[in-house]
Design brief:
This protein is an alpha/beta fold. Helix content is 47%, strand content 14%. The strands form 2 sheets. Strands 2-1-3-4-5-6 form a 6-stranded parallel β-sheet, sandwiched between helices. The chain has a two-stranded antiparallel sheet with strand order 7-8. The protein is globular, with a radius of gyration of 18 Å.
């Protein structure tokens, strides 16, 4: 495994997305800028890396169309490009600290207030509850429509399955709903017969809802006994959650997935809290994937993997 081919797999999250051709470069630019800023020696490795971008935005569009959630795609793309340009201009890790987040112009507390009000109820709701349909209709559709869920998972499995079968040194980075898809795909591969012999080196989740009881209760394997509930094909799992990100209001997954450590299914499971400085139409947007990708914490975790280390060193 020391000389195994390194493979980076990226999975986007919920919400209406630009086309693959428009979104993939933005993800790559954000991740590359973080590495360039904090770990420039690893930039050649990143540029030469085998990278797979798992896109399922086209599958999400009918769900959002049915709900009447429309947008101006050109304006949304321009806003993403503006957000990335602002983030890329930050040239020091010190500029991503709490004081800079709290000083952001026109900061709004709506997302935090909403999370504080809804979190106590969200954890007691069943998958079919209208609450989830309102806050994350894509997740509700993912649970209810097995054909839709299977099609989304297959987009990732097509890439992940051969990576594990071939013993590639793989980092799987998944945002938001993508982390749910990633976890379920790992579970499927772990419990298939025969299962791939090799493990995923690093699972890196950002802005993930996996700490939510309501989300976990509807996932594959959730009703199985402990020995069959979790994937066994992950070596290291790092979770990055931003302050005020309502999707990961509960910012820690380690306590929820502790049995994976207790049963020695995984070597390391660690949470990291960050401040996401991305904006959406001029206002703070702590769930923004580009803000997670360019953050010093993500850059360090990816750089450590590129160097063959997984210590999650301080930033």
């Amino acid at each position: 495994m020391a000389n195994a081919k390194q493979h980076l797999i990226l999975v986007h999250g919920r919400g209406r997305k630009p086309s693959r051709e428009e979104l993939q470069p933005l993800w790559h630019q954000a991740l590359r800028r973080g590495i360039e800023r904090d770990h420039p020696k690893q930039l050649p490795k990143l540029d030469a890396l085998a990278t797979s971008f798992v896109y399922y935005g086209d599958l999400l569009q009918p769900v959002l169309d049915e709900l009447g959630r429309t947008c101006d795609p050109q304006l949304d793309l321009a806003d993403l490009q503006t957000a990335l340009a602002e983030l890329a201009a930050l040239d020091s890790t010190k500029q991503f600290r709490s004081q800079h987040y709290y000083r952001m112009k026109r900061r709004s507390g709506k997302s935090k207030l909403l999370a504080n009000l809804t979190a106590p109820f969200a954890n007691t709701l069943r998958a079919e509850d209208p609450f989830i349909g309102k806050m994350a209709p894509e997740l509700l559709a993912y649970r209810r429509d097995q054909s839709f869920a299977s099609e989304v998972r297959e987009r990732l499995l097509t890439v992940l399955r051969p990576a594990l079968e071939n013993g590639e040194d793989t980092l799987l980075l998944a945002h938001c709903m993508g982390s749910v898809v990633a976890f379920e795909c790992l579970w499927l591969l772990s419990h298939r017969d025969p299962a791939p012999q090799h493990k995923l080196k690093v699972l890196l989740t950002v802005g993930s809802p996996l700490a939510s009881d309501a989300v976990r209760k509807g996932m594959l394997g959730a009703t199985r006994r402990v020995q069959e509930r979790y994937p066994r094909n992950v070596t290291h799992w790092f979770n990055v959650a931003a302050e005020d990100d309502y999707v990961c209001h509960d910012m820690t997954v380690a306590n929820d997935f502790d049995p994976m450590l207790g049963n020695r299914y995984i070597s390391r499971l660690e949470d990291f809290g960050v401040f996401n400085l991305a904006r959406r139409y001029g206002r703070p947007n702590p769930h923004n994937a580009l803000g997670y990708l360019i953050h010093p914490r993500t850059a360090t975790l990816v750089a450590d993997w590129l160097k063959g280390a997984t210590r999650g060193s301080a930033v």
